[in-house]
């Protein structure tokens, strides 16, 4: 795998994730009234005894202030826009990844409620990007970042499928129909369809269980089958975004797919030159110590 392909894949991951980050930040800034003391997104760091509150109640009080929430959203917006414009520049990458990770952690302490899998995946991408920045060689850093994101995606899909597998609601098909009947995540058209054809709910539930649980098998499939499998995952997130009103899932999880494509393309190839140098350097050091 060439330096250019690793850098290109890593930039794709960052840019797609940055779209979701930018949209979310813009939405937050447009709803600053929700951060007020009587708003649904008001600060809860002190009330819930968040880690920061246990260390410093004064800092937690500042974190709970509506203006702090606005500042955090503004920082998120700046990081998202900067990543979209300069995703392939190392200095910008490090700055935005570290800042975004800090903002996400502070926001989670400020209000721990209402987060879902897309928020967690967004934090994972930014966190891994920040951690991989400690690797001096850009090629090795991008390779580490992509493989870490890919591993997290495979674990997330498989774990989600296994959790559904042990749920009687999912095995019976009731889970999908129940969600579609809710006012927040449901869709009246789909709900009426499921009432008319209940077997469709069971079909959707089991299809979701099987593909999520079996996702790691993608690494054993030939390219002509692995690519359609990944494309199906994209369609799945598009459907969630459309029918459940969760567009964040589209950006957060689609951002991880270039990492999986990178790993799939790298199967059977030799380590990159920089990784080979690192391995040789480690072997030489071990030999010298042994001598």
Automatic annotation (TrEMBL):
Membrane topology: Multi-pass membrane protein
Transmembrane listed as a keyword: yes
Main location, first listed in the record: membrane
Compartments reported by the entry: Endomembrane system
Keywords on record: Membrane, Transmembrane, Transmembrane helix
All residue ranges annotated as the HTTM-like domain in the record: 1-257
Keyword Transmembrane found: yes
Matching SMART domains: HTTM
Domain of life: Bacteria
Protein name: HTTM-like domain-containing protein
Protein species of origin: Williamsia serinedens
């Amino acid at each position: 795998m060439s330096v250019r392909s690793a850098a290109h894949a890593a930039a794709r991951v960052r840019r797609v994730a940055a779209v979701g980050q930018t949209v979310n930040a813009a939405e937050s800034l447009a709803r600053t009234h929700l951060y007020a003391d009587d708003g649904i997104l008001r600060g809860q760091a002190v009330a819930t005894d968040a880690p920061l509150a246990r260390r410093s109640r004064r800092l937690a009080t500042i974190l709970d202030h509506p203006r702090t929430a606005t500042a955090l959203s503004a920082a998120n917006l700046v990081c998202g826009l900067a990543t979209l414009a300069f995703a392939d520049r190392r200095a910008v990458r490090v700055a935005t990844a570290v800042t975004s990770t800090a903002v996400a952690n502070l926001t989670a302490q400020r209000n721990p409620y209402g987060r879902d899998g897309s928020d967690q995946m967004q934090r994972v991408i930014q966190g891994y990007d920040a951690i991989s920045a400690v690797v001096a060689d850009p090629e090795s850093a991008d390779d580490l970042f992509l493989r870490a994101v890919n591993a997290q995606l495979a674990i997330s899909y498989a774990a989600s499928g296994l959790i559904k597998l042990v749920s009687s609601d999912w095995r019976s098909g009731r889970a999908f129909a129940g969600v579609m009947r809710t006012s927040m995540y449901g869709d009246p058209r789909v709900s009426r369809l499921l009432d008319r054809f209940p077997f469709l709910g069971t079909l959707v539930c089991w299809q979701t269980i099987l593909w999520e649980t079996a996702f790691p098998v993608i690494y054993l499939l030939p390219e002509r089958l692995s690519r359609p499998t990944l494309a199906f995952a994209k369609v799945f997130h598009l459907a969630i975004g459309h029918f459940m009103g969760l567009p964040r899932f589209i950006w957060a999880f689609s951002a991880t797919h270039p990492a999986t494509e990178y790993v799939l393309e790298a199967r059977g190839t030799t380590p990159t030159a920089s990784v080979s140098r690192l391995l040789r350097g480690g072997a030489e050091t071990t030999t010298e110590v042994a001598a």
